[in-house]
Amino acid sequence: MTKKTRDEGDTGTDTAPADPRRRRFMRDAAMLAGAAAAPGAVGSALAAGKPEPLAVPSWTTQQGSPILTPAYGMPSKFEKDVVRRPTDLTPTDLSSWSFTPLQDLNGMITPNGLVYERHHGGVPAIHPSEHRLVVHGLVEQPLMFTIDELMRFPQVSMIRFLECSGNTLTEWKSATGTTVQDTHGLLSCCEWTGVPLSTVLKEAGVQPEGKWILAEGADAAAMTRSIPMDKAMDDALLCYAQNGEALRPEQGYPLRLILPGYEGNTQIKWLRRLEVGSEPYMTREETSKYTDLMPDGTARQFTYIMEAKSVITSPSGGQRVGGKGFHEIRGLAWSGRGRITRVDVSVDGGRNWETAELDDPVLPRCVTRFRLPWRWSGAEAVLQSRAIDETGYVQPTREQLIDARGLDYVYHYNGIQSWHVAPDGEVTNVHA
Amino acid sequence: MFTRKHAIAAFAVLAGLALAGAAGAADNGRTYDLGTPVTHETIAKWDIDVPPSGKGLPEGSGSVAQGREVYAKNCASCHGEKGEGGPMNRLVGGRGTLASDSPVKTVGSYWPDATTVFDYVHRAMPFTAPESLSAHQVYAVTAYLLHLNGIVPADATLDRESLPEVKMPNRDGFVSPDPRPDTDNTACMEDCGD
To answer: What ranges does the record give for the region Disordered, renumbered to this chain (chain B) (predicted)?
Structure first.
């Protein structure tokens, strides 16, 4: 339980759950229900009489903080619970991961400090002037670049999602995660800026037999993946900035690969080396790990694409729907194969569906925000969302995934997520 | 009169200037002429990958017996005395389990290429001191792990010639390219699911 901080002075209620996610949801609900529910009356705003006369608070009667408090701005202190949270599945926090708080975010962009983390050997502290990128192998001229040199190339920016191939892996066998941060929080979306990888590869001159690229990081894992040349020449980016500022250390400062729509681990952080070869390199991260075991004992390899997926972020697990009446169901949809064309939402566990509204812009290989108005009757409900992308692919049910892949596939879980709403408003993760 | 021919000529001159401005040393074939040409000597310490062909394997060799000592000193505390795992990944056993309800993925049961063991141990292990083992030690600990998995005999010694020749039990266990999409949900809107 978290000490009450966010809503002090907000509703004054002492019935609100201590979990900040629930409290905020109830606060929103209370405001919707009557704009100024009487103290203690959250969820039964009709009982409230005339609102209390508004007082003039202290922040209106005295000066606030000066500029540069601090020089690099931070969120309001009342948002201190909106943070990444760690997995409890790894024995070390150096090779581990942390989740983005999707339930607390709006729009399509993930703030830099909340982008999910997955490291295999900790976060290195790399001095940018000492970092180099080497491009070699089956090229006409092996080249070495400084970051300053890479920044001189023609620049492009693109808003693209980033998702770990293991996102939602806890949900194959049972409904495990409590919040959408637990279940889907290995997903983030940023504006990435850099130089197209194709530009730099053409500088070095790829030889005709060069069909694969080994991408290698400078971290303690010297993380390596083999990338198909077609992808490298298509929309791959040598990225040095995210959301307008330099890459964060945990996102690969000073240089990372961005491979739109591909599983996150291929988008090598702290990128130091690109070797062009004729065959894949069969690194540990594409053999022992990040391969997908089928029921017959074979494993799928080089399963790069993150297929279409969606999830309702509000209301979602761990929150409480704060009263009957109007609520907007909100969520995110994305596809590694291109644009989202449609998202359907069900409030009865998948029996009947309505098409949600998609917020602009709808970009390829980018999260798309969807919204659907909902008037809650107070009865039990099961909320689901179902994404469709421009290839016509329809996000599968969990049963369909298991039929196709069994229960030990581990990665690439993109089944339809169900949130159960109890008559008391409590939202929980279920398999429906 | 300013003819089309003149316009084309003028454009050519302008384009030439622009190119010269953007890429002064176009005679080397590079458009932007950024970066520094390098030889293998410059990048040797970074060029550490070992693909299944064995290309890039260093000189040196190591035996199962030597590997037992390297393992005990550098690996056992995380992976168990005999590679049984705990707290970190299990490295030994699991043969025949991949198609079962409780698949056990280890070096012996799952990894398709012996070269990957060398590559990964060299680049990333031991976890607290990556790249601290010598080539001899990496050959040795690779031999030991392969021996614990029943893949090489107790008297085996591995080097740049013999390591790529080792055939792993699950060598043919991997499928690519990606066969997905492998589901075909439909967007039913009413009275679905029966």
So the answer is: 167-194
Give me the DSSP letters along B72-89.
HHHTHHHH-TTS--SSS-
Interface contact flag, A144 B38, Cβ < 8 Å: yes
A430 touches chain B (CB under 8 A): no
Other Cβ atoms within 10 Å of B64 Cβ, number: 23
Which domains does chain B show, CATH number per domain? 59-165 (1.10.760.10)
Tell whether A205 is within 8 A of chain B (Cβ). yes
Residue in chain A nearest B94 by alpha carbon: A297
Residue B26 confidence (pLDDT)? 52
Q: Which residues of B touch A140 (CB under 8 A)?
A: 29
The CA distance from B39 to A193, in Å, is 29
Classify domain A112-300 at the CATH topology level: Sulfite Oxidase; Chain A, domain 2 (3.90.420)
pLDDT in tens, A144-203: 999 999 999 999 999 999 999 999 999 999 999 999 999 999 999 999 999 999 999 999
Q: How far apart are CA B178 and CA A231, in angstroms?
A: 14
Q: Which residue of B has its CA nearest to A299?
A: B174
User: Which among A140, A152, A273 has the least Cβ separation from residue B46?
Assistant: A273
B190 with A352: Cβ contact below 8 A: yes
Residue pair B148/B83 in contact by the 8 Å Cβ criterion: yes
- Which of the four pLDDT bands, split at 50, 70 and 90, describes residue A40? very low
Q: Which residues of B touch A304 (CB under 8 A)?
A: 178
Q: Does A348 touch chain B if contact means CB atoms closer than 8 Å?
A: no
Would you kindly state where each structural domain of chain A is located, as residue ranges? 1-39, 112-300, 309-430
Q: Do B123 and A153 touch (CB under 8 A)?
A: no
Chosen from A282, A306, A389, A405 to mutate, greatest number of chain B CBs within 10 A = A282
Put simply, the answer to whether A394 touches B185 (Cβ < 8 Å) is yes
A272 chain-B contacts, CB cut-off 8 A: 46
First-to-last C-alpha distance (Å) of chain B:
80
Cβ distance A186 to A264 under 8 Å? yes
Q: Kindly report each contact of residues A155-158 with a partner whose C-beta sits within 8 Å and lies 24 or more positions away, as own/partner.
A: A155/A193, A155/A194, A155/A195, A156/A193, A156/A194, A156/A195, A156/A196, A156/A237, A157/A191, A157/A192, A157/A193, A158/A191, A158/A192, A158/A235, A158/A237, A158/A258, A158/A260
Q: What are phi and psi of A196, to 5 degrees?
A: -55, 135
- A3, pLDDT greater than 70: no
B90 to chain A, minimum CA–CA distance in Å? 11
Q: What is the DSSP string of A314-330?
A: ES-TT-B--SSEEEEEE
Coil, strand or helix at A96: strand
Match domain A309-430 to its CATH number in 3.40.47.40, 3.40.605.10, 2.60.40.650, 1.25.60.10: 2.60.40.650
